[in-house]
Amino acid sequence: MNYDCIIIGGGISGLSCGIKCLSEGLSCALISTGMSALHFSSGSIDLLSYYPEGKVVKSPFKVLEEFTEKKPFHPYTKCSTEVIKEAILFFQKETSKEDLQLISNSDKNHFHVTTLGTIKPTFLSQKSVFNNDYMETFPGKTKIALITFKGFRDFYPAIAADNLTKHKLFKDSTIITGEVELPEQEGINKHEFRSIDIGRIFDSMEYIEQIANSIKVVAGDAEFVGMPAFIGINDFNTIHNNLCEMTGKHIYEIPTLPPSLLGIRLDSALKSRFTALGGIFIPGDKVEGGKITNNKVDYIYTRNLKGIKLKAKNFVLTTGSFFSGGLTADFNMIKEPVFNLKIDYPKDRSSWRSKEFFHNQGHPFLNFGVKTNSMLNPFTSSGSLLKNLFCTGALLAGYDPIKEGTGSGVAISTGFYAAKQITKK
């Protein structure tokens, strides 16, 4: 098997890279071990949410250069502001071709509500989370209903309402809470449902009118209705539009605990786009290593394809951080397990973390990752530069995606930038 590019890792960064490579006419295969971190995500795209001191960023692109000057080893320094803009626009365009609209507030961040009713700044959100109609209508509305299904254990409206009322955006709002009955499902206890189970009920379209009528009764005269994000998995745009029309209300989706339907929709759209462009998707397999000759990766091998050398002109390693297994740690060392790439980290293990779990400066280990040059080529543990291997996304060193709110932005931008380097060859 021989390709122009083989991507190791099936998350948002790897898929962004693959879609860009395919759009430029390259042959591309992607190997994924299984479910990506998108299934645990909000489904929104964070570009840059917070300054280092914790203040909310209003307009990410206006402060990116200032931000990277203060953080010279950040992955954003590898990409220019123009490349990051190009990457985000490309990402929006490609997901829209799979009927997933990602909406921005022009060049500014907007806020989305979390499962607990806290407020987070983000740059792109799905239409049921943020759109121009919501933005224009919300300031004049003072009554909001937070509604869930009876028995659903992953969203508690009373907790969310209590937290929302503490935020200045909702200081003049009246927030009510309520529950609607879940349509009876034979042989299934309603307390066992997760968001994906309820999403399938919506997908059937069988109970939409019944659910809409229940929402109208519980919401009363509230014009905005916040509900857990379980309004369909596949034809969610049609379902959401129908529900808004039937209730006469703005239905707002709130990300749930995993599995997150908003993240699953994004994952599904990217995989569909990748395969539609001719990409070869190899799920459920793990790359165990490769052969390096003259500072180039010659081939890789996987757990399932025994004895088969997977060859390509270029390789992209985008296996994520500790959460996804892209980095591993024991008591004495941190390692990149596929190619044993160079990672900078202090040898004193006690300095890997902060003493407080919720420390306002986060934890140092979140900044650990693979060291690369300006073109995202990594170094081996012995210091040799691998010319045809590129590293992207959460695998990279030099940033804290949680503290900064840069996770998806770095993933998309570095994946896109790696693809640009590959297409230049």
Description:
It is built from eleven helices and 17 strands. With 425 residues, the protein is of the alpha/beta class. The protein folds into two domains: 2-99 and 264-424, FAD/NAD(P)-binding domain (3-Layer(bba) Sandwich), CATH 3.50.50.60; 130-254, Rossmann fold, CATH 3.40.50. The strands form five sheets. Strands 1, 2, 11, 12, 13, 14 and 17 form a seven-stranded mixed beta sheet that branches. Strands 8-7-9-10 form a four-stranded parallel beta sheet, with helices on both faces. The protein has a two-stranded antiparallel ribbon with strand order 3-6. Strand 9 (224-228), helix 8 and strand 10 (250-254) form a beta-alpha-beta unit. The longest helix has 18 residues, at 407-424. The two termini are 20 Å apart. The model has no long low-confidence stretch (mean pLDDT 91).
